[in-house]
Amino acid sequence: MKQIKFLLRLILVVQFLSIDCFSAKIIAQTNSAKVYIFRKQTFGTPVRPEISINNIALGNLPNKKYMECTVPAGNVSVSMYFSLSGANEAINFVAESGKTYYIKANIQPISPNSPLANLNLSRVRDAEGEKSIKKCKEELVADVTDYITSDIPEYAYNPSETVVQPISSNNVPNNSNPIPVSDVDRNIPKSETKNSNTFVLIIANESYTFLDSVEYALNDGERFREYCIKTLGIPEQQIWMYQNASLGILYSGINKMVQALNIFDDGKAIIYYSGHGIPDEKTGDAYIIPVDGKGTDVSSCYSLNKLYNTMSSANASNVTYFMDACFTGANRDGSMLVAARGVAREPKKETIGGKTVVFSAASGDETAMAYKEKGHGLFTYYLLKILQDTKGNATYGEIADYINENVKKEAFLTNEKPQNPVVATSEEISSSWKKMTLK
């Protein structure tokens, strides 16, 4: 009888341990995310960049292949390195438990016989990622959860887990609502002209770690890139787009533009930004906020003055900015990024040198608002619209007049708030900028 009781107790202990181990396994799995890195190009075959996640080398990524990687929830850094040319690229984001992320790798040799290559990593939406993975072959499946120390922000935990205090998810974009497809998203004009002297930097910051998301910023950046390629005839390898760029990525992208302009003679630069901006409380200087930046700490942001000075010092024939952001410390809906501020502050006017034209979405203490019906920022929608209507042939003067007139009217009708886009130029081209074109 004693032996039977002992055996029953032993069975109960084993069952308890099994359940406990199984529960631990489930918890470990729910605190992880899946990352796919894929490359669906059919060119640039000799270039096989090295892929790493949080400094853990995964190997080389050939054409038409993908890597599947399980990572702990938290801060993730995917990097791509090409040893022959020393080119390096990285993208950073916060991975949430149980979610899947798709990273597209683009590799463009500068010329057929050149060892140099331009590298680009960008996050794509789930639908595009899933479709792309099906067209690629598996190169690697890896689980690095045991090799990376998890640093999970509270909102990145799986919602099924118990959290002491409810966490706001305002900084996580709501992808459950489909983005409207507007007229500027269809029938994008195609140009036969090759605009081979122009280089483009696109920063589209939508999902912020410490701030509310910027509605439609990714859609703005993606569509502007498409117009650059199709309508303006700019070679795809001369366009660098960074989605949800950290401060480090901002520095890297701007430095890449400077390098390109110093290598190629008579090069033109276009810089597009959609995201948050803020003024320094003390000086009024304007700052771009990277996705890992804080609205209360300008040292975590990128100075607009620094951007203008850096680009004007490069060997460019001219530099054009399209800034779908306000630098007053307000969201696209007019609310404040930092609640303690209470009111928007007008940023100080920046000094512009070189041959520079800056198209800004709003002036003074106004807000750069969204056009919800069209799924874009109000400024970006009308920028794309005139590029569509004129097939990219409009002069800068025509672009400025069209955007100003239409944004001003629509802001009043839709939002009942003023939004007056403004153009600022350097003194050197103050009398000639209106005749300039993007082609």
What's the arrangement of secondary structure elements?
Layout: H1 2-30, E1 32-39, E2 50-53, E3 56-60, E4 65-72, E5 74-82, E6 87-95, E7 100-109, E8 117-124, H2 126-134, E9 137-143, E10 198-204, H3 217-230, E11 239-243, H4 247-263, E12 267-274, E13 277-279, E14 286-288, E15 302-303, H5 304-312, E16 316-324, E17 356-360, E18 370-371, E19 376-377, H6 378-390, H7 396-415, E20 422-425
Parallel strand pairs: 1-7, 4-9, 10-11, 10-12, 12-16, 16-17
Antiparallel strand pairs: 1-4, 2-3, 2-5, 5-6, 7-8, 13-14, 14-15, 17-20, 18-19
> Distance between termini?
93 Å
Largest sheet: 6 strands, mixed
Mean pLDDT over all positions: 81
CATH topology of the largest domain: Rossmann fold
Based on the coordinates given, report the CATH architecture of the largest domain. 3-Layer(aba) Sandwich
- Share of helix among residues? 25-40%
Low-confidence stretches: 4-8, 10-29, 152-176, 336-345
Total DSSP helices: 7
| Count of discrete domains | 2
Order of SSEs: HEEEEEEEEHEEHEHEEEEHEEEEHHE
Tell the overall outline. Answer: globular
Strand order, main sheet: write it out. 11-10-12-16-17-20
**SS-based class:** alpha/beta
| Proportion of residues in extended strands | 25-35%
Number of strands: 20
Radius of gyration over C-alpha positions, nearest whole angstrom = 24 Å
Q: What's the level 1 CATH class of the largest domain?
A: Alpha Beta
